[in-house]
Amino acid sequence: MKRFLSFLLVAVMICMAIPALGAAEEPVTLRVAWWGSQTRHDKTMKAIAKFEEKNPGIKVEAEFTDWGGYWSKLATQVAGDLTPDVIQMDYSYLAQYGENGVLADLTPYIESGAINTENVAKDVVSSGKVGDKVYALSTGANAYGYAYRKDIADEAGVEIPMEFTLEEYYELCATVYEKTGRTNAVPTGYESLRMVLRAYGLALYNEAGDGLGFDDPKYIVQQWEDYQNAEKAGWSLPVGENTNTNDFDTVVNDNWMVGIWAYQLATLEENNNCELELVCNPDPADRTMPSTYLKPTMFWCVAEASEVKDAAVKFIDFYTNDTDCADIMGTDRSMPISSAIREHIAPNLDSASQKVAAFMDYLAQDGKTSPVMKADPSVASEVRSLLDTYFESVQYHQVEDLTAWAQQFMDEANAILAKGAQAE
User: Fold this and answer.
1) How confident is the model at residue 25 (pLDDT cuts 50, 70, 90)?
2) For the chain, give me the number of helices (H) and strands (E)?
């Protein structure tokens, strides 16, 4: 009898335990927000479905908006304590949201390996820093380089190395002109000035964004003098004689080598119907650091107020390192930051994208790039236009004292920047 009662008691306890063992836990709800085209939306939804499949305890709520409405919506959500758990972030807004306590510090998750950055270049990780904290991880990286027509280089009998100095660039241009009659352009203007300044450890704008980051006009003057010297030598066409109709025609009509952002290579090849190669931006021989930097296209961030940070971190790691995700997303948010993922998707990329992937792999090596600078101030477009206006006067030989002219530009630019900073 005692044995029967003991058996009955055990049976009752097992029966009572069965519902508890069979009950499914409620999945964690993870809100993920992004902006972009319908194509990005469709791909991201497929990636989310794969993420949920691999993480059955996490249910993702997608919040998709176009660029125009994204930032006003996010500001409203933050103000109302309704911030999404995972936020797609633009570089121009990163400092604002990071400094205001909206974003969580990802450093502990990177250090623990929860977000695996083993195959990510150090400068890419650093691009998500505000102060000494990593608030964001880039979804993809881009870099400024030079594209050149291989057929023209072959015709001239010149080899174009992956890295070469600005002085060697000018020598190459002169040689190609002598051998083929092909002209080329001198690096001048906004982005070229930025790169020259970076080569000397300087910045186009100061840290506060209320003035230029350099005070000597010699950097501008040097570019203008190089332009005039090339025009006199014949290998650079005078203003008004170039025949290009848009940015991408220049490689065919006049120039055989041109500075571009790497992601433009496919469009450049297609529009010009020619094969192009991609090499590093040429720096002055006496540079103090590489001018090239890995520019984040956009970021993933985690909200500081999120109650499901571990799930949010899992999503970012999935997007960064999962091959199934990479098969779905491809290069939608630019070239993946993980070298392992770039290697994985490379066989399925078109020829131009494979060149870009190889270029990014080259730059991912230590010492090939320098840290990205703070985002440009809001009035940067005015400074760019002003620089173009001043350079136009140089092109038309209307300036006698280049140093005084460059200083005048700097004075006006500083006034624009100071006024812009006061208005913010």
Assistant:
1) low
2) 18, 12
User: Alpha carbon of 340 to those of 117, 141, 331, 405: distances in Å?
Assistant: 11, 14, 14, 49
3-state class of 51 per DSSP? helix
Q: Give the model confidence (pLDDT) of 64-89 as tens digits.
A: 999 989 999 999 999 999 999 999 99
Average pLDDT, the chain: 91
The span from the CA of 230 to the CA of 10, in Å, is 95
| CA nearest neighbour of 121 among 374, 368, 373 | 368
Which helix (H) or strand (E) segment holds residue 109: the answer is helix 107-112
| DSSP-based three-state secondary structure for 393 | helix
Strand partners, 145: 260, 280
CA distance 157 to 369: 29
Token pair of 306 as six digits: 């999120």
Q: Model confidence over 113-165: pLDDT tens digits? A: 999 999 999 999 999 999 999 999 999 999 999 999 999 999 999 999 999 99
Cα 111 → chain centroid:
23
**Residue 209 dihedral angles phi and psi, to the nearest 5°:** 75, 15
Q: Which residues contact 131 (CB under 8 A, 6 or more apart)?
A: 98, 99
Q: How far apart are CA 74 and CA 71, in angstroms?
A: 5
Looking from the CA of 216 toward its CB, the CA atoms found within 13 Å total: 7
- Between CA 363 and CA 357 the distance in angstroms is 10
Of the listed ranges 4-13, 225-234, 316-325, the least confidently predicted one is: 4-13
- Span 367-376, mean pLDDT? 92
**What's the whole-model pTM score?**
0.85
> What are the residues whose beta carbons fall under 8 Å from the beta carbon of 197, sequence distance 6 or more?
203, 204, 213, 214, 219
103, 97 contact by CB (below 8 A): yes
